[in-house]
Amino acid sequence: MVRIIFWGSLSCIAYVYIGYPVLLIVWRRLAQRPVHKRYQEPSVSLIVAMHNERKNARPKMENCLELDYPADKLQVIVSLDAPTDGTDGLLGHYAVRGVDVVYSPVRRGKAAALNSAVAMASGQVLLFADARQRFDKNAVRELVANFADESVGAVSGQLFLLDEQAKEASDAIGAYWRYEKGLRAMESDIHSVPGASLLYLK
User: Cα–Cα distances in Å, from 49 out to 1, 60, 111, 135?
Assistant: First the structure.
């Protein structure tokens, strides 16, 4: 019985780190489905949930407002989840610049904050982002181009770690990070990505 449990457990581990990648390699060779991108400009609602993000709020908003996408087709929504560090005061400045702000005086959690923002979203495409992320100027254009392919329902961006602290973390887990990115790339090629930083078509 002990041997069965041991070899069964070992087989599961081997499948995760060896078997599954091999399966993806074979599957991609036999049934690759490239995405047919075409540049277009659907309306987009960019949603950010914040709690105590005083340090990141201003850089994040400036980054969102500087994106290379038509202003009349890009709705920026910030959902504030009962901040206590003055984040809400900083966001008031951006409300007059066209940013939609949803405020909850009671802490409800990120999922509830996102749901509140989604309820007021008017875009054909929903783009979710964290307060710490910075978008490349052309990111929205590149992401929505994937939806020209009608078989695509969600799109993920690629995360790059830039600051020194993140670089140290990246070095420490570099091998696993490369392994995971490789898996995601192969999963994308067969239209089967189970996890993503999401851009979602309504």
Answer: 50, 11, 9, 16
